[in-house]
Automatic annotation (TrEMBL):
Its main location: cytoplasm. PANTHER family: DYNEIN AXONEMAL INTERMEDIATE CHAIN 3, DYNEIN INTERMEDIATE CHAIN. Gene3D superfamilies: YVTN repeat-like/Quinoprotein amine dehydrogenase. Keywords: Cytoplasm, Repeat, WD repeat. GO terms for cellular component: inner dynein arm. It is found in: Cytoplasm. This is Dynein axonemal intermediate chain 3.
Length: 715
């Protein structure tokens, strides 16, 4: 029964006051209950049991306070006199007869003696080693409270009369299994054989191992030669078993010393220079073309993509014949370097492209004509993984091998009237943590999904592009998230319609105009300021340096120090620290930082050589110079970490060749306290340059004062 506080107070049975867990019983008079039912009618808590109370033969009913909610309520009413007597006067438990002269003793635990079993139990026990996955299921609000309609289903529609949710390989993930725990058991050696018999005859045979009889075994054991062999071998076997218990006999001391074959050649000499690991080229697509950009696939091992552009002399060459060559982005793989694994069709040559950090299947590229292009390769990820059912290796002698490579057409291209007026030299995805509004104001990205792209061009314009529909920019980014999670839909022309709403109509969300000259480095703070009319506009640059003699081709922050920047362009490269510069004279075409060592960076040169700079060894000249990596000008270099013991450096040249160089151990394993030493070096260099600038300003002031004094003396 449920008794309200008013009823409890009326009958003197307040919970935890009049009745408690130790004294839960309360006798209620039958007349009082009947009077309460007459007075409060249906409001009375006893109205549901009115007839039961009227039929009760005695004058008092037993009410029990149920603190533990045994019957799902805080009180229960006893309805029969027998049950009331049994509750108020419970029967005494029967006591067993105790035999005389027998003393019951409590058993005492014995002392635990460890024999090592607890270690085996601990090893075999299952322990959680990774974080649990959290899943959130939701539905749209308009479906709340909607009635559910069930219908009959034919059991023949599904296998065995049930719906099977079979597992499938998710094309968006590539997980490499590093370790597996499996059991093994030794079995007799199996042998397969065949015979020329009809298919309806014996299909398989089974045999048992042939063993010696007990009599033959006894005779062999009597041989004197066998006894001598066992006597000579037994001590050595016992010694080997004893040594195995003391130390691991299979431990490779040579490898532990760092002189194994993977660290150098078989003579034990450790390699200190870059070594060619793999080379890629394709005469059909790379002929008379240079590689303008290169990127490793973020999730698939050994897959890289390169963008091709025509050489300048080919574009300006006056010829009576005009041959149209397709503009494509090629995907190469370590598994089959002979041919491209995937082709991305482009409306024009691509200068730069990038994989989306939120979804590697989405790729954005910048064309030479100033347009922005989008691709979706979700339908071809299985092919790149090399696990496509029925796929076969294509022979190098196959004349139709180009038909075997899948071609992906672009999903969307920006509007021609809203393009850059010069080639797009770089394109980058904005980080998933923030986005910009139409007025250029940075705001937080609450959904942590990259949906905006920024492009730059020699037309002195920086443009921001948004992948969402124009009318939805003021809304949330959930639509973009749903399109990423859903399976890519295909149109009849095998073109994914992921960005169908942007094709030919895509316009920049926001643009920044800068009046820069070739080779200038600008350092500014992304902060909007109001002009005299009150309109928001971009802040003026904090610093502007004209240090490079031609277009800047590399601007890259150090992965270890956020205030250290490497730039290359023209005839030199420079290292900056928020306005402070260090630059030796070099002929440079590209550059990049090492991903594992703060003091190491790589510079590509016009003559096809690569310089390896190590600030821990030398600061005035490169630590290593690898000449003749290629006979053409190096266009791009990009590092990639395959594993903790395998680091690569990708090098592309002006004739469409891709080379993957393996970085030696001495160049990717940092030395002790290297990070602190390099940081200290940059600080000392900054102090030296600041002192030089102050002295230069002082000398200029002294020179002006001397000229002024000389002019006064003459006058």
């Amino acid at each position: 029964m449920v008794l309200t506080s008013a009823t409890q107070e009326l009958f003197g049975c307040l919970a935890d006051e009049d009745v408690t867990g130790e004294s839960p019983y309360k006798l209620l008079k039958k007349d009082d209950i009947i009077q309460d039912i007459k007075t409060r009618a249906a409001v009375s808590d006893f109205s549901p049991v009115k007839q039961i109370v009227l039929d009760y033969p005695e004058d008092e009913l037993l009410l029990v306070y149920d603190r533990d909610f045994t019957y799902e309520q805080c009180f229960y009413l006893v309805l029969t006199p027998e049950a009331k007597d049994r509750i108020l006067n419970p029967p005494e438990p029967e006591t067993s007869q105790v035999l005389e002269n027998v003393v019951n003793k409590t058993p005492e635990p014995k002392e635990w003696i460890s024999l090592g079993s607890e270690l085996e139990i601990d090893e075999e026990s299952i322990k959680e080693t990774r974080e649990k996955l959290w899943y959130k299921f939701s539905r749209v609000r308009r479906k709340f409270g909607v009635p559910v309609c069930f219908s009959d289903r034919n059991t023949a529609d599904a296998k065995d009369g049930y719906l099977e949710c079979a597992s499938y390989q998710d094309s968006r993930f590539s997980i490499k299994q590093m370790q597996r725990d499996c059991g093994m058991q030794a079995v007799p050696r199996l042998q397969s054989s065949s015979a020329q018999t009809q298919w309806y005859r014996n299909i398989f045979t089974q045999y048992v191992p042939r063993e010696l009889s007990d009599e033959e075994k006894e005779n062999i054991l009597q041989f004197e030669s066998l006894n001598n062999f066992c006597n000579s071998v037994t001590p050595r076997v016992l010694q080997a078993l004893q040594q195995e218990e003391i130390m691991n006999g299979f431990f490779d001391d040579w490898k532990a010393l760092g002189a194994a074959a993977e660290d150098g050649d078989w003579s034990g000499k450790v390699s200190e220079g870059l070594m060619l690991y793999q080379a890629f080229t394709d005469q059909k697509y790379t002929k008379d073309k240079k590689i303008s950009s290169i990127n490793w696939h973020p999730t698939i091992y050994g897959v890289l993509a390169v963008a091709l552009t025509e050489q300048k002399e080919e574009r300006t060459k006056d010829s009576t014949t005009f041959v149209v060559t397709p503009s494509v982005i090629l995907f190469y793989s370590f598994s089959d370097p002979s041919i491209p694994q995937l082709l991305l069709e482009c409306p024009d040559d691509i200068f730069a492209f990038e994989f989306c950090p939120s979804d590697p299947n989405i790729i954005v590229g910048g064309c030479i004509n100033g347009q922005v292009v989008l691709w979706d390769i979700s339908a071809h990820v299985t092919h790149l993984l090399g696990t496509q059912p029925g796929s076969k290796k294509v022979s190098d002698l196959d004349d139709n091998q180009e038909n075997k490579t899948p071609v992906v057409r672009y999903c969307a291209v920006s509007a021609l009237e809203s393009r850059h007026k010069a080639p797009i030299t770089d394109v980058q995805w904005l980080p998933p943590t923030f986005e910009v509004t139409r007025s250029g104001l940075p705001v937080e990205n609450k959904y942590n999904i990259s949906v905006q792209v920024v492009t730059c061009s020699p037309d002195c314009t920086i443009m921001f592009w948004d992948l969402r529909m124009q009318r939805l920019l003021s809304h949330s980014a959930t639509d973009r998230k749903q399109s990423v999670d859903q399976k890519t839909q295909m149109t009849p022309y095998s073109v994914p319609d992921t960005f169908k709403h942007l094709d030919r109509t895509w316009k920049p969300l926001f643009r920044v105009l800068q009046g820069l000259r070739d080779g200038e480095i600008v350092h500014t703070d992304w902060k909007l300021e109001k002009d005299d009319s009150g309109r928001l506009q971009s802040a003026k640059p904090l610093h502007c340096f004209n240090i490079h003699h031609w277009l800047v081709n590399t601007v890259q922050r150090s992965p270890f120090y956020k205030d250290i920047i490497l730039t290359t362009g023209g005839w030199n490269f420079a290292i900056w620290k928020e306005g402070v510069m260090v630059t030796p004279p070099q002929v440079c075409t590209s550059g990049c930082w090492s991903l594992s060592r703060p003091a190491v960076f790589f510079i590509g040169k016009d003559d096809g050589s690569i310089e390896v700079w190590n600030l821990m060894e030398k600061t005035s000249e490169p630590a290593q110079v690898h000449a003749h990596i290629t006979n053409a000008k190096i266009t791009c270099i990009k590092p990639w970490t395959a594993s903790s013991k395998q680091h690569f450096l990708t090098v592309t040249d002006d004739i469409g060749m891709v080379r993957v160089l393996e970085i030696p151990k001495v160049l990717y394993v940092p030395t002790r306290n290297e990070s602190l030493s390099v940081k200290k070096y940059f600080e000392l260099e900054e102090e030296r340059l600041n002192d030089f600038l102050k002295r230069e300003e002082l000398w200029a002031q002294q020179k002006r004062e001397a000229e002024e004094l000389k002019r006064k003396t003459v006058s």
